[in-house]
Every structure is written in structure tokens, then in C-alpha cells.
Write a structure and sequence with these properties.
Helices cover about 30% and strands about 20% of the residues. The chain has 13 helices and 19 strands. The strands form 6 sheets. Strands 16-15-12-13-14-11-17 form a 7-stranded antiparallel β-sheet. It has a 3-stranded antiparallel β-sheet with strand order 2-4-3. The model has no long low-confidence stretch (mean pLDDT about 95).
């Protein structure tokens, strides 16, 4: 939509092929239906949140940074607000408002919306000549592929763009789940299903014990394992489940060092000497978490607080500062917010998004082998690469 709108506003006729009855199906579910449309930060900070091929995005992000994305949507009539973590949302908290604003802007700009599923980019001698769809063929001297990756296939992103790009000689790095909930075996996570933790620190260790990710924020226990913003961001660093074994380690009290936390434990236990241990724990942890903490620390739940030994207290401290869960693997790729993998970026011009293999072919968004953390960064990539492709396509035509 952004690519089509950009090109149309620059004065060329544009056809937008959309396989769904409505445009923007995937936008409706972003940000839990609220549409976290960018992150209010500098271009450098955007790139720092792109773990894969961030250098490729330097030009596009710099030319259409978050501050301009915000102005763009405000000009379309979408009031915005910035929340914790610099996440930007529509004031209405409705992704539909963002979709509608883009849809009506496309209409005003004269973009021809056609419901059809593109199947093949037509070329002659390595030069684009149009697109063949299931319902017809469409002539054009520039074609922008912006079909998304392979996540959330019900929204229409079923990997069609990979097939079309590959048919023209592009290298496709196999798509893998990037921002994805994690599966943990056993009954501990299901017993805490629905429990959300805030202000905790999470780190990921690989099989050799090396910490490959560390961040503080929110997470969630589910019936299958772990989810929430921290876990999704952590998953972007866990790329080889077949060769490596990953462990999630949660610090439930990151604001307290071990000495301060131990002093707090002593204070709580001695201050309520006759209460059962599990009741004392309620001042330190959510109720659903208490049975797991007690079991991990090896302390009977009904043990009087004054009977907890120094060794047991040490085990509890270590559990509070390092509650670990071995990761069995990611959820299915269909559950991923975004996919890593896609068209190899060395085959695409980073300034124009034009293919280096086919003249007049442009590629944008998740179809490319770039992905970012949660927080609005992936939509920022969509907007800036779409805009770069739209501008460059028009310059080619003119």
C-alpha cells in the first residue's frame, strides 16, 4: 500500500493487485489489533534493532525515518500517541483506522485496486513487462513485489513472493520464524498459563553457556511455554534449534543485587516467623508462580518461615535471580510475527530496492531477508522500503 501510494502521488498510473477482498489484512492484527506502526526513535536506533542485514536498510530508513512516518500518518488523518518503549500507536488503539487511512489515500491518489492473486512477473530479456495473475494479465514497466513473508498465512502472506522472485533467478534464504513464542516441555508453564510478568530480566544461553541475548521488560507464560515481548525479541537470536540447545533464564528481581535480595528475604522470613513459607512468598512473587519457586528451591510450601534454613534461603535466592527453562523449540512458523529469510539482500540495490538481476523489478518489506525486534521496527521497515521502491520505480519510468 505504501509503495503504491508513493508511486501514484508522484504521478504515474498504478495497479495494486490484492488477493484478499480487503487490503491490509495483516495490519489489522499488528500490535494486538492496535497497530504499533513505528518506534519513535532515530534511524540509528532503528538499525540497532535489526539483528539481520541492518546495513542494507541504512539508506531506506534514513530517507524515511520514524519522525517522517509519524508525520505521514498524521497527514492522512490518523492521530498518534507514543507509549512505553517509544512504541507509536493510533490514539484510537484501532489498527482499522490505519488501514482505512491508507485505503482512502489510495483511492484519492487514483490507484486501481484489483482483486487478483499474482502468480508470475512477466519479463522479456531480463526486463519487466508486467504481471500474470489468476484472473488476468497486467502490463507494466515496473513491478514492486511486496507480498510479505510466510507468517500468518490466513492474512494472505503464504510465500507467493518467494516463488515469483526465485523464478526470476533470485536466491531465497529459507524462511524461519523470527519473532515467535517458544515451547517449553513439562507442566510448569501450563500451571502458570496467563501469568504476565513485568520488569523482569531475561537472558538466553546457548549450549556452551554463552549469553546471546539480554533484555528487561515483559513476558507471558502460556499453555505451551513462553511468549510476550521479551520472549519474541529473544527468539530472533535463536536461529539454529537443530544444532544448539537454548535456555531462557529469568531474573524476577533485576532491581536487586544478590545481597539486597538476601536481606529482603531475611526480613520477610523473620518478620512473619510462624506463617507458612508459601504465604510469605506472596510478598515476593505472583501467586501462580509460588508453587514453582517453592519446588525449584526445594522448600515445602507449608514449612514455617522460621524453619527455612540458610541453605534453603540461598536456593530460593538463586531461583528468584535465575529461573531457567530449557527451550524445546519455537512454535510453528505460521505463528511467527515475522519471518527471517527471504530474498538475498546482496541481489537488491539498497537505495532503490531494485533487483540487480531483473530491470524494473523492486522488492520491499518482509519478502527481503531482513527482520527486526518487536516495538514497531518491522512496520518501519515495511514503510521505508515500500516508499523507496515506489520512488525508484517512478524515477525509472520517468
Amino acid at each position: 500500500m505504501l509503495a503504491a501510494l508513493t508511486a501514484a502521488q508522484l504521478g504515474v498510473p498504478v495497479i495494486l493487485l490484492e488477493r484478499n477482498q480487503k487490503v491490509g489484512r495483516k495490519l489489522y492484527i499488528t500490535g494486538k489489533g492496535r497497530c504499533n506502526l513505528t518506534n519513535d526513535c532515530s534511524p540509528e536506533e532503528v538499525l540497532a534493532n535489526v539483528p539481520r542485514n541492518s546495513k542494507f536498510l541504512t539508506s531506506a530508513v534514513t530517507r524515511f525515518p520514524p519522525i517522517e512516518v509519524k508525520d505521514f500518518f498524521r497527514d492522512l488523518g490518523v492521530p498518534l500517541k507514543t507509549e512505553r518503549g517509544h512504541r507509536v500507536f493510533p490514539v484510537s488503539d484501532k489498527a482499522a483506522d490505519v488501514v482505512d487511512a491508507l485505503f482512502f489515500a489510495l483511492r484519492r491518489a487514483g490507484v486501481e485496486l484489483v482483486q487478483d492473486r499474482a502468480r508470475e512477473v512477466l519479463t522479456v530479456g531480463g526486463v519487466v513487462r508486467g504481471v500474470r495473475g489468476e484472473r488476468g494479465s497486467y502490463a507494466g514497466s515496473a513491478v514492486i513485489l511486496a507480498t510479505g513473508g510466510a507468517s500468518y498465512p490466513l492474512t494472505g502472506s503464504t510465500g507467493d513472493g518467494y516463488a515469483m522472485a526465485a523464478a526470476m533467478g533470485h536466491t531465497i534464504l529459507p524462511p524461519k520464524a523470527s519473532l515467535i513464542p517458544l515451547v517449553v516441555e513439562g507442566d510448569e508453564c501450563p500451571s502458570m498459563q496467563g501469568l504476565s510478568l513485568r520488569n523482569v530480566a531475561v537472558k538466553v544461553k546457548n549450549e556452551k553457556g554463552k549469553v546471546i541475548f539480554r533484555e528487561q521488560g515483559e513476558m507471558l507464560f502460556t499453555h505451551f511455554g513462553l511468549s510476550g515481548p521479551l520472549i519474541l525479541s529473544a527468539s530472533a537470536h535463536m536461529r539454529d534449534y537443530e544444532k544448539d540447545q537454548y535456555t531462557i533464564v529469568i531474573d524476577l528481581k533485576p532491581a536487586l543485587d544478590e545481597a539486597a535480595l538476601d536481606a529482603r528475604l531475611v526480613r520477610e522470613l523473620t518478620g512473619q516467623p510462624n506463617r507458612a513459607f508459601h504465604n510469605v512468598l506472596e510478598t515476593l512473587a505472583p501467586r501462580l508462580l509460588i508453587p514453582v519457586l517453592a519446588k525449584r528451591a526445594g522448600i515445602p510450601s507449608d514449612l514455617p518461615a522460621n524453619a527455612v534454613t540458610k541453605v534453603q534461603r540461598r536456593h530460593l535466592l538463586e531461583t528468584l535471580k535465575g529461573l531457567s527453562f530449557p527451550v524445546a523449540g519455537p512454535r510453528p512458523v505460521e505463528d511467527a510475527i515475522v519471518t527471517s529469510g527471504g530474498v538475498k539482500v546482496s541481489e537488491v540495490d539498497p537505495k532503490t530496492m531494485e533487483s540487480k538481476l531483473v530491470q524494473g523489478l523492486y522488492l520491499a518489506g518482509e519478502l527481503l531477508d531482513v527482520d527486526a525486534y518487536t516495538g514497531g521496527f518491522n512496520l518501519q521497515i515495511a514503510w521505508c522500503t515500500g516508499r523507496a521502491a515506489g520512488q525508484a520505480a517512478v524515477e525509472r519510468l520517468q
